[in-house]
Every structure is written in C-alpha cells, then in structure tokens.
C-alpha cells in the first residue's frame, strides 16, 4: 500500500535528489555500445536499479531506483525509458537511457498505486500505466502526457479489479491483463470470487471486448503480441496446489481464448506462474522465475516443444529474429528456435522483465 510516509520519502527524493541517487553510471561492455535492452535489477539488500544493455544483454549503464522495479517501457523517439515500481508500486521513474540522466520521479497519487507495468502509445505521445484504487483494487489505466512532463490527463476504468500488464497493439488498441484480484498490499482477499479477464480498450478508453478463461482461478497477468493481431497472455493459477492447468493462452479479437498445450507434469514445472512472454511468427516463449525454467511453444500447433531449466528465468524479448532471455542468476540466453541457444554471462541480477528499444 502507498503510505503517506512512503509518498513523502519519494517526493523528497524527487525534490532534492539526495535520498536516492538518480544518475546513471556506465558499465564497460565488450559488445556494441548502442542501447537496445532495458530491465530492472537487484544489486544487493535494498539496492535496485534499471539497467540499460546492448543487443547481447551486456550492461552499459544503470540507474538507481528508490524501490524495487518491475516492468520498463521505452520511447525511442525521445530516448526516454520508464521503470515502474513493483506492485503495490509507489512510483515510476523516467530517465534518458542514452545518458542515464533522471527526467522525472512520479509518485503515485494519494489514493492510487501502480501495478508494475506501463507502455507508450505507438506515436510516443502518451504513457499508459496500470493502476489500482487503494481500498478497492478498482482497475485504472492512468494516461500521462509525455510532452507535458508526464502530467496525468485521464483515467480509464470500468474493466475490472487488479490490472497488471497493459500493451499497445499495432492498431493503437490497448490490451490489458486483468488479474481480477482485490488485494491488501500483496495479500489477495477475493480468491473465491475473482473475475480475471483479457480486456481491450480503444484509445479513448472505451471497452471493446472482454474475454475470460473457463477457470476463474487463472489470474490473467502478463501479455505480449506477435506484431500483428494475436495477443498472448500468461496466468498465475490461484486454485488447488496439486492442479496444473494451462498457464498460457492466445487470443484474437472476436474469438475465444485458446489455451496452449503441455502435459500436466510439464505445467507443474512452471509452479503456477508465467512471467514474461514474447512471440515471433513461429514461436512463443514464456518464462517462470518461480519454476526456474522457460518454455517454447509452436504458434501453429499451440504445443510445447521445448522446456529448458534456467535459474530465476525472468525477462524475454524478441530482438531481430532471436529471443533474448534474462535470468536473476545473471545468464542471458540468445535463441532463435527450439534446440539452438547460446548462453552468456551478463553479471547482472536481472529482475522480472525486459523491454526492447525500437
């Protein structure tokens, strides 16, 4: 929960820049010096950063964050990036990913918290952030005017409780993973009655479509799209601990959610949780830090074709025609297709998610 004391501490950091160092430091890389990937990291007890990396996942610079980060959004036109605090988040931090310079520390409104994710509009003019109303978990998409210094100009709602990730489709439609969970801090309060959904809004915030899965204990959380019309959604299962339903689904507007396929013992490896997702024309890759693994599915057959161990498997993006997968243990996997991967050591304790610039 966003307490008044927390808000005051973060506001003090924003005003005086003393409590939390917000200037980036450069880390030597043997790869290209061009920034391509951005993610959050943990670098010690109560030390959290956003890390800018090259195309191979090797760090270039890091920006200190006041609290643990989660998702990151990037705006290539302005060289801006935004790190969102882990839910129930108290801030988002805007910085220049070329220089590491701090641009804005935006503290959550008094009766709001952030859910850890956001995305820029396709034209880069707006930032959309998943937010919740304190005390009710009413879902909100906060709309921020980038040119006006990230001033909040609108709120979209009426789509459910506990939105987690929001993405922008190529046609400017917003897709939202609505977890359906009312929480106090991180404690769930309505598991028996939760109503998760995959919800779509038009750019004006009007609800276009809302679909759900047959099992309402599958909380829809993380999203990706394939560059066209297909959305992939990853779930957290909040039902019986010895049941292992499908944790991934794909969807196109106007159709039903289609669960991806794997054997129950394979789903068990994911420990009831999907974190990051990315997709190409042929393949879908999803990570599970709780399961210390990632899987690759055929987009055409929806069948799991590879299940690989990876300690604290975290972010995944598509760079060129290859997946890049991060790990809290410091590994970076480069893989274009099942069975063919290269592993490198980044020296970064990656946390949760990656974003690709471009």
From TrEMBL:
**Tree of life domain:** Bacteria
An example Pfam family from this entry, by short name, is DUF1513
InterPro entries, sorted:
Quino_amine_DH_bsu (IPR011044), TAT_signal (IPR006311), UCP028101 (IPR008311)
What is the annotated signal peptide range for this record? none
Name the record gives this protein: DUF1513 domain-containing protein
Source organism of the structure: Vibrio orientalis CIP 102891 = ATCC 33934
